[in-house]
Design a protein that fits this description.
The protein is of the alpha/beta class and about 230 residues long. The protein has 8 helices and 11 strands. It has helices spanning about 5-10, 50-60, 80-85, 100-105, 110-120, 130-135, 165-175, 190-200; strands spanning about 10-20, 20-30, 30-35, 40-45, 70-75, 95, 125, 140-145, 175-185, 205-210, 220-225. A hairpin with a 2-residue loop joins strand 1 (about 10-20) and strand 2 (about 20-30). Helix 2 crosses helix 3 (about 80-85).
Amino acid sequence: MSSVSDIEDVRTLDRRDGPYGEVVLRRRGEHFEIIANGCFLMDTSDGRSERLLIDVALAGLPAGRDRPSVLIGGLGVGFSLAHAAADPRWGPITVVEREQAVIDWHREGPLARISGAALADPRTVILPTDLVAHMHGSTSAYDALCLDIDNGPGWTVTDDNGGLYTASGLTACMERLKPGGILAVWSAQPSATFEEALRNAGFTRVRTEEIPVARGVPDVVHLGVRPA
């Protein structure tokens, strides 16, 4: 149960209505929270699972792949981007973020303290577009896709996001990967159903990495590789 002091220490910094609904940036004590359509997405209290998303993708690539490219789906609080940009082994870093408010909070708002150096990195490009649309409509190919736009395949922020985890969505992800490339999908809980969907879509080396949390089931990263 939250204490009175915890409740009193929550402050809304920005609230915007956009084409995908309401998005809110709040400050709780020393930490920031992003809320979309009333659904808690993430905060700055930890970040281990967002960093693991990047690390396991890099570790899963074929040995000797020089300066691989990575697409990060969802800017969030910036932990994944900052972690990727801090690693000189990565080549081009593309971030797809559909919420202009989130981009603004990083470029000129309070989240710049997390992502400022990464946004200034010449490898970094921000695409202000919908990730699902980018997967289906782009012709670009990446060595790694690190996706974190929902609380998981079964707990999406908007109904449209659900298409990412279907057979057609995973086929589109496969097409955006170079041979031997890796798909990494963050989730607030493990999903055997999604693992099976990855296998059915043709991904190999499907597995799930767990990240323990203080309470409840662990966060996870689901992984699959496009055959070489």
